[in-house]
Design brief:
The complex is a heterodimer. By secondary structure, chain A is an alpha+beta fold. Chain A contains 11 helices and 11 strands. In chain A, helix 7 packs across helix 8. The longest helix of chain A has 29 residues. The chains are: A alpha+beta, B alpha+beta. The complex binds protoporphyrin IX containing FE (HEM) and FE2/S2 (inorganic) cluster (FES). FE2/S2 (inorganic) cluster binds next to loops of chain A.
Chain lengths: 345, 264
């Protein structure tokens, strides 16, 4: 696999996205600091920093975790997915300020190493009520760090998509750790019910979004066809595929996308080499299949990214008989040239 | 036929329907940001007006005593004395600084000295984080004050929390409870005197320096009880503006639930 991670470069939409991230962060901090200084002016700068960054990080985490399912439920949300990694890295940096300041404030300038102190200053590991909640935040921060550090496509290319994806699924572990961190920590002492209620709503919204997205995904699979041997399989009528778009079929547990363009049909493996985006939900743009997630492109007739890029996906044989579309389920080697099936009008 | 919209991140033109959806999303997010910010800031517990003069060095003059914990005794008005507890830098007690002073001036026990440092004060108690112990004080004098009187007030049993006074009377907000517990452990472990605080029904807090039953300082032995609601019992004494509580660590009882000072 080549080093074609340059494909996703800085561009106007990313800049707009980043500007919105900055705007939201500033709005949050302004409100938090302003309201605290006005209503509770005996606070300290350290506490303001720790609390505003901690709560902002968990707000951003909720937004980040919502984007995936939202984009699956409604494709119009895909632009939010496009630059999610910048949101992720921003969230990590803000969490780092929170964790860093907490470690400085509560553990530095003392008689033992501050990290050692995080783990040992409270040893009630067997008690829920008195649990050393800072340890949970620390572990979550390590996960967020690993994710932020490997978020660049360079790592995606070098870690293999599967390892990378597993690593990034750890975000759910981080979320669980952080929720426990807050409920076993600050909420034991900050006794206003509104904060836990807000966190509860956040949790419920996330669960609902994930379940709805899951149901949608399962339904999508039901619409497709099962086939498992090496005979030609009938999949659909030509008219069922829209121009410059594809339909996705499951064959042998693999998804195949059949594209229709310029009176031709071509079939390729549905999984984008970048981050596994669904190519069959993409569109043919300038003669190339374009991934809906980050816009990686492939030529329909051979599954190869146009030069200078070197990504390749598997291709399949398709044929048309009597306006009916058939596919041969056996995948060809990645990047194999296949003559498109011609649609006779 | 309806327009087949498709968003590609690196192509600048965003299709109009998608753009409308995004605008709507942005407004929802603005709302969410406002709700989170308001809830997390407005509903914080009230902070105390405790003060740590971090950037301001003061000088206090009075009689030094090392027991039960190093302090300087000053006269506020005739027959009204106040003990200012001495502290080191960071999460340390004053031992290192007092060593510095005594290596220059020999023993300063019971002598009048002028010590520089940063003041910490809240609710009638004052503490001093010693500064520049390598140079100050430059001299010691005979004490101008009468002998200290320590009054015995009998046995008591009370509920409250063991805190580290540097943070509690100073800049940590909050400087007590679960949030602050590990910091208080660090401070007391580093030699800062453990202080017991309670809150009466009338809302007045009382403060007690804690020693072992013989009146010696305790630090490491009490760590596991710091920052949690506890019930303590022991012999109560009064030294000017401070109570002293002499106790056996084994008699400390951990209570579950919030300590009364959380209502602060
Ligand atoms: C080294 C890692 C961490 C440490 C030492 C740490 C420490 C703390 C401490 C001491 C508090 C109580 C502060 C107070 O209420 O005054 C706190 C609260 C909180 N933490 Fe963390 N934390 C860490 C990581 C994280 C991470 C990664 C997140 C989320 C992304 C997070 C989110 C929060 C939230 C939302 C609160 C409650 C609100 C607040 O009081 O600030 N923490 N943390
Ligand atoms: S372009 Fe990123 S997954 Fe396809």
């Amino acid at each position: 696999m080549g080093l074609n991670y340059q494909l996703v470069l800085w561009n106007k939409n990313k800049k707009v996205y980043d500007r919105f991230i900055l705007l939201f962060v500033l709005l949050y901090l302004l409100l938090f600091w302003g309201i605290t200084l006005i209503t509770n002016s005996n606070t300290s700068l350290e506490t303001l920093t720790i609390r505003s960054s901690g709560t902002l990080a968990i707000l951003l985490l909720h937004i980040i975790l919502s984007i995936g399912p939202l984009a699956r439920i409604n494709k119009k949300f895909l632009p939010l997915l496009y630059n999610r990694r910048h949101l992720g890295v921003s969230m990590f940096l803000i969490a780092l300020i929170h964790g860093g300041f907490s470690i400085f404030q509560f553990h530095m300038l003392g008689d033992v190493n501050p990290i050692y102190s995080v783990f040992t200053s409270n040893l009630d590991y067997s008690s829920l009520h008195d649990f050393p909640f800072q340890v949970l935040g620390f572990l979550a921060l390590l996960i967020l760090f690993a994710m932020a550090a490997t978020s660049h496509d360079f790592w995606l290319a070098n870690l293999s998509a599967k390892t990378w994806k597993t690593l990034h699924m750890l975000v759910y572990v981080a979320y669980a750790l952080i929720v426990s961190h807050v409920f076993l920590g600050a909420f034991q002492q900050e006794t206003s019910p509104y904060m836990p209620v807000l966190m509860g709503i956040g949790f419920v919204v996330l669960v609902i979004l994930h379940i709805s997205a899951g149901i949608k995904e399962v339904k999508k699979d039901k619409q497709t066809y099962e086939a498992s041997d090496e005979d030609w399989k009938y999949v659909c009528e030509i008219d069922e595929i829209e121009e410059d778009r594809a339909k996705i079929f499951i064959v042998d547990h693999e998804r195949i996308a059949i594209f229709k363009y310029e009176n031709k049909l071509s079939a390729i493996h549905n999984v984008c080499k970048h981050q596994g985006g669904p190519l069959g939900e993409g569109k043919i743009i300038d003669g190339c299949i374009t991934c809906p997630w980050h816009g990686y492109q492939y030529l329909p007739q051979n599954g190869q990214s146009p030069p200078p890029f070197t990504e390749k996906v598997a291709t399949y044989y398709v044929k048309i008989e009597d306006k009916k579309v058939y596919v041969l389920p056996k995948p060809l080697d990645e990047g194999t040239e296949v003559s498109p099936a011609i649609i006779e009008s | 036929m309806k327009k087949d919209e498709f968003y590609i991140g690196y192509i600048n033109q965003i299709p109009s329907k998608i753009k409308r959806k995004l605008k709507f999303t942005v407004w929802i997010l603005v709302l969410v940001v406002i709700v989170f910010a308001v809830v997390f800031s407005f509903f914080q517990n009230k902070f105390k007006n405790s003060t740590f003069e971090l950037t301001n060095v003061s000088e206090i003059t009075g009689t030094f005593h090392s027991k039960p914990y190093p302090s300087v005794r000053i006269e506020l008005s005739p027959n009204d004395y106040k003990n200012v507890l001495l502290l080191g830098f960071g999460k340390f007690g004053p031992d290192k600084d007092i060593e510095n002073m005594e290596s220059r001036l020999n023993s300063i026990e019971g002598k009048e000295v002028s010590i520089k440092g940063n003041l910490i004060y809240y609710n009638g108690k004052t503490l001093l984080q010693i500064a520049d112990s390598e140079k100050f004080p430059v001299m010691k004098k005979e004490s101008q004050l009468p002998e200290r009187k320590i009054n015995s007030l009998g046995e008591i049993e009370i509920e409250g929390e063991v805190i580290d006074p540097k943070c509690y009377f100073g800049v940590m907000k909050p400087g007590f409870g679960k949030i602050h517990r590990s910091c208080a452990v660090r401070c007391i472990s580093g030699g800062i005197p453990p202080v017991f605080t309670t809150r009466s029904k009338e809302g007045n807090s009382e403060y007690f320096m804690i020693t072992d039953s013989k009146g010696n300082k305790i630090n490491h032995d009490i760590l596991e009880y710091v920052g949690q609601p506890v019930k303590v019992k022991g012999a109560l004494e009064q030294l000017d503006n401070w109570f002293i509580l002499k106790l056996n660590v084994e008699d400390i009882e951990l209570l579950k639930g919030n300590s009364k000072i959380y209502s602060n």
